[in-house]
Write a structure and sequence with these properties.
Number of strands: 2
Helix content: 40-55%
Largest sheet: 2 strands, parallel
Strand order of the largest sheet: 1-2
Number of helices: 5
Structural class: mainly alpha
Length: 133
């Protein structure tokens, strides 16, 4: 695999992530969901190429992009702790049984997934075409 191939793959993945985010924001807009900000954290917030694409996505949706400082985005433990705090606040996932009887979830949604609804809406991301030329 050449350097060109690796760079092309990275650029395609960045574009794909931006399109998914754009569709999600458009889906919310069409459903009259008020979006106050577009929050990006973790490794995505540390990736300058992804972050630049997501800045355009946020601007196209007229919402501010909010990112913690990169020093706070590198530790997955921090993100896991935040998810745990949110679940605890909602009364979810509080350990009532011995640890060895617990099931650990590789993905921990904090609400109902609307991913299929977004896909079914067939929202075009053509507006992003010019930023990835």
């Amino acid at each position: 695999c050449s350097c060109f191939c690796s760079c092309s793959c990275s650029r395609f993945c960045s574009f794909s992530r931006s399109c998914s985010s754009f569709r999600a924001l458009e889906f919310c807009r069409t459903r009259q969901v008020t979006i106050h900000s577009f929050v990006v954290s973790g490794g995505v917030a540390c990736n300058k190429v992804l972050l630049e694409g997501l800045r355009h996505v946020a601007a196209s949706a007229s919402v501010p992009l909010v990112c913690p400082p990169p020093a706070l985005c590198r530790d997955n433990g921090l993100m896991i702790a935040w998810a745990g705090a949110e679940a605890f606040r909602r009364g979810q996932g509080v350990c009532q049984t011995p640890l060895h009887d617990q099931y650990f979830h590789p993905v921990w949604p904090l609400g109902r997934s609307v991913q299929q609804d977004v896909l079914d809406a067939h929202i075009s991301a053509a507006a992003l075409r010019d930023i990835w030329k």
